Amino acid sequence: MWGSVLGCCSRRSNHFFVPRAVRRAVASAPQTSPANARCKHTKQQPARGMRDLLPDDAQRLRHVVDTVHRVARAFGFRETITPVVEHATLFQRTLGLDSDVVSKEMYTLGPDNDLCLRPENTAGVIRALLNVGQLGKPHRLVYSGPMFRYERPQKGRYREFWQVGAEHVGADTVQSDTEMISMAWLFLQRLGVHHEVTLRLNTLCDQEARKAHQIALHQYLRGCADGLSRESQRRLAAGQHLLRVFDSKHPNDAEIARHAPRIADFAAAAHQRRFEEVLAGLDALQIPFVVDPTLVRGLDYYTHTVWEFDTDKLGAKATVLAGGRYDGLANVLSNGRASAPAVGWAAGVERLDLLRQACGHTSAADQRILAIVEPSSGVVPRDCVGERTAFRLRQHDVCVYHLCHGSLAKQMKTAQRIGASVVWLLGEQELADNKVSIRDMETGTQRLELLEEAIAQEVQLAGIPDA
How far apart are CA 46 and CA 40, in angstroms? Predict the structure, then answer.
């Protein structure tokens, strides 16, 4: 990975500039002498917080990604792809210079640390639309891809992690909020984990209500300053990100937050009606939810509806999907020159995969595998019926293993090992009669059919028409 990233960096004195995160990793790595270097590197581990995805793991994660794209298409969303490397100022503007992500977790690179590996993708999507002047048009966008954060690795959380998400830009209606939540719910339903999550919602109202709430919250926290955690005291002294006290994990902060002013106390009647309409829409769709007045976002560009899907199936309470309305983000990125209402959500693929496994979904949806076996006589048949049959089926996206070496018993063992659903036997008698013996590997039943009819049936199952 780093080879391609370093290729983007500038040269200094004929040497590539090495990103700060890489220098830190190299400095902390154990030193080995030339004598034992060969032994030490015989088993090369991935960098801390990174991991290899071998076929079983990759298939499970691919299932999550494919599911979100399939659900998104049903809502009229189209895929968008943005660069992995962005200008660091993009996230400094949107997340804040003093945020943990920017100050501690962002992988920066370039001669002046002016580039970075993206820690999230919403800002990149809005930047892309701003860049081509299309913020004035409605867009339904879905994305998936790797993100990077330099944080302590733990179960379901890596320094390189995959994220999926959806953004509805140009939508300012109550219906769009409800639709985005229902899309997330259907996504979790298709993954088979919706029974193990709780949907929590709140409203952040508008900027006027947020300002009034901030003033009241600041006054309240000043009276409790001695009891706050050191991090919350720092934020209080700076007068920034005070809402973070509501999602602080420190027990003192949690107790103080229980009695803090709520933003709902400052909501205008119109804001409350809007939120109630969102809740009514979810009731109509029979999507269960809990209103949580402590659910907040620490960024000023969020407005109105915010939500999270939480679970306790992974041990401690964990958020698997989060979203909200961010009508002010375009204004922040354009320095006040553009505005666009927007609502969206994002989810970590690794954490969703862990939840699927905890729910008993230990593998992705089973793929139908067809094995063609040809007892070998040591001579390659001139007509190549097996090879031609395999190719015809593959043209229709049928997964085919063509086994034509070794004894019949050895080929059948191979078919079992690869998980074949069905085995086609093309023996001498079958080839002479233009037929095929078909064995169902689950039931053990076997039947004889005309080869052309068997191919037609398999193509019909695949549902891919002729080119």
Answer: 14
Give the Cα separation of 328 and 331 in Å (integer). Answer: 5
| CA–CA distance, 20 with 103 (Å, rounded to integer) | 12
Token pair 């989810």 is at which residue? Answer: 347
Please check whether residue 26 is in contact with residue 2, taking contact to mean a CB–CB distance below 8 angstroms.
no
Instruction: Tell me which long-range contacts 38-46 makes (C-beta under 8 A, separation of at least 24).
Output: none
Alpha-carbon distance of 152 to 155, in angstroms, equals 10
* Residue 377 dihedral angles phi and psi, to the nearest 5°: -110, 5
Tokens 């399939």 belong to which residue? 70
pLDDT digits (tens, 9 = 90+) for 6-34: 344 333 333 334 455 545 554 555 554 44
Mean pLDDT over 240-244 rounds to 70
Amino acid at site 96: G
At 319 the three-state DSSP class reads strand
Alpha-carbon gap, residue 224 to 285, rounded angstroms: 42
Q: Is the pTM of this model over 0.90?
A: no
Give me the residues paired with residue 290 across strands: 200
Residue linked to tokens 């009819």: 453
